[in-house]
């Protein structure tokens, strides 16, 4: 895998064709749509704003493209999907998250589709695939982030239904979702968790504005459940499968988030190279300063190393192997490398890099979050050490 800020994917004709079409859409129609609606990263997301993007992306074949052909997708490999996710993030488009269906769409559902019953597929998931409904995933609580087993949301069996009570936070896509995949602890147990499909307009369910993250994006909701009745038919898998479904999703997503962050780092590197070429200081471009050249060299090398590492792990995932150790390593390395790249990008941009409204300033805030989200860097180190020690015995 050779270094390039605009990979051509010549080794994979299908991927090369998809990337070409995706870039055309992102730089053309979607860019025009965002300008027409004055969309910025801080623009509150609404169904009215996102639905046209879902429909057009589906018409172009991108919405749910990772799904098997029987569900309307193209059955992409993880590596091909990752390449598309990287392109989306590198495009600088605010609504790029809705092109493949990550914001409430089929990409948000992930591998949970495999656990759905025919009833659940028909009522909940196939409408998501078609862009008619949206979902969110509700696992995190105020005191149950990395330690998910500390969650207090509880499910009580009540005849042919369950009663759910609890308060979920950081439910991404919650502002546009019709239903949530909620993980709850079974009443009377300490270690038994189940997953439920909860209609967000059901009695006893309230969707509140979530905290605004440091990126400034309005994409989160709190889901408050107060004796909310959920039909037994909405149980995903069996009782006790909740963490298997929830954390299994997290394990794959841990690796699949990496290409998106690499795309953000790539975008920052592109912007910084342009800044270095065009910013005149003392009568000459910044790019002529050796100190700046060294920063650019370090940024590019760090990006290349993190990208190569990530795609090697994705290739293993495509063979059917679950690269648990490597996924921890990739998440740790990509998070830290991207943060260092953005820190240097801000430094080279100077005052402009400190100014709200400047893209590099936003990217810095966005990338900083990844050192915490989907497991902190410290949690990744714990996982790496634990697996290494297990291998050594």
UniProtKB/TrEMBL annotation:
Please provide, in alphabetical order, the Gene Ontology terms of the cellular component aspect for this entry. cytoplasm
Q: Which residues form a coiled coil?
A: none
Question: Mind telling me which SUPFAM superfamilies this protein's record contains?
Answer: Acyl-CoA dehydrogenase C-terminal domain-like, Acyl-CoA dehydrogenase NM domain-like
Name assigned to this protein: Acyl-CoA dehydrogenase
What are the protein's UniProt keywords? Answer: FAD, Flavoprotein, Oxidoreductase
Tell me which cofactor or cofactors this protein depends on: FAD
* Organism domain of life: Bacteria
Entry-linked Pfam families:
Acyl-CoA_dh_1, Acyl-CoA_dh_M, Acyl-CoA_dh_N
* Family annotation (InterPro entries): Acyl-CoA_dehydrogenase (IPR050741), Acyl-CoA_Oxase/DH_mid-dom (IPR006091), Acyl-CoA_Oxase/DH_mid-dom_sf (IPR046373), AcylCo_DH-like_C (IPR036250), AcylCo_DH/oxidase_C (IPR009075), AcylCoA_DH/ox_N (IPR013786), AcylCoA_DH/ox_N_sf (IPR037069), AcylCoA_DH/oxidase_NM_dom_sf (IPR009100)
Residue ranges constituting the Acyl-CoA dehydrogenase/oxidase N-terminal domain according to the UniProt record: 21-132
Q: What Gene Ontology molecular function terms does this protein carry?
A: acyl-CoA dehydrogenase activity; flavin adenine dinucleotide binding
Q: Which organism is it from?
A: Streptacidiphilus jiangxiensis
Q: Which residues form the Acyl-CoA oxidase/dehydrogenase middle domain?
A: 136-217
Q: Which GO terms describe its biological process?
A: fatty acid beta-oxidation using acyl-CoA dehydrogenase
What family is reported? Belongs to the acyl-CoA dehydrogenase family.
All copies of the Acyl-CoA dehydrogenase/oxidase C-terminal domain together span: 240-388
